[in-house]
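ESCALATION

Customer reports they have been waiting on this structure for their group meeting. Please prioritize. Original submission:
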Amino acid sequence: MVLPVLVMIGIGWLCNKRQIFNMEGLQGLKSIIGSVMLPVTLFNAFLTAEYDLRVLVVFLVVFAGFGAAIAVGFLLRPFVKPYGKFLPFLLASAEGGMLGYALYGLIVGNQSGFAAVDLGQTVFAYTVWLGLLTSVDGGKVSAKGLAKNMFSNKCFLGMALGILLGAAGLGKLLLASRAGGVISSVIQMITAPVSAMVLLMVGYELNLKRKLLVPVAKTILFRLAVMGILLGLSNLIIFNLFPFDKELEIALTILYSLPAPFIIPIFSDVGKDGEYVATTLSVHTLVTVLLFAGIVAYSLA
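Update from on-call: job pushed to the front of the queue and completed.
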């Protein structure tokens, strides 16, 4: 399971080096993934997810954990001068959409289990995280602005529709109907290439800047330390309240191994810190792949 991940990242890197497709082609690939494939993946994951008290507890634990992480990020800003401006946003939230579902699906075979942990992360990302990121350049944060960002994002809409139908029990009825087979087949056809295409894109965008390795290394070490603590606390709280579930533990481990969301440059003017942000995300993606090897070994144990 790990070697195909490395191969696809390597193919993406070669596509960049050999210019098999250019940045315009990459933007087209991102558009297909972000506008079609990921919304359908999220819709299906939340449509087929189980909704119970445990899901609520996981949501609260993940949401509160990332809230603590972003607070720690503000305290650690002086340690990565002059790049500390974006440190809090590189320590909190996670790239669940572009990477988490793909990696979880490679281990378990479906994405619905990851939806349980991604719910708290996604809501946090589109509220607290995005609100603070918008204000970092002096922008005004408003409920109207956050709502506009949420409901103009196709991935959020796919997730929201999946939650509404799934939580209401309509998802199971829909899939059990005469049209269920066709719907499942269409969803499977759309979502099957997601893992490969996301990893191809990750490989294409790998960007290692030697002059930034020290601040980037500090940032990644800070994030790994914070995420490690959150993983331990999450397991302690959740599995003291509910029976142990290995698939849920794997989902949590993947969540806390992921890099920060890739959308930082989209919602904020990163300016001179752009290379630092991009390099941190690139290097942490490689670290995630290395951690994924260990997660795979644990899943097979």
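Sent to customer with the following note: The mean pLDDT is 87.
Escalation resolved.
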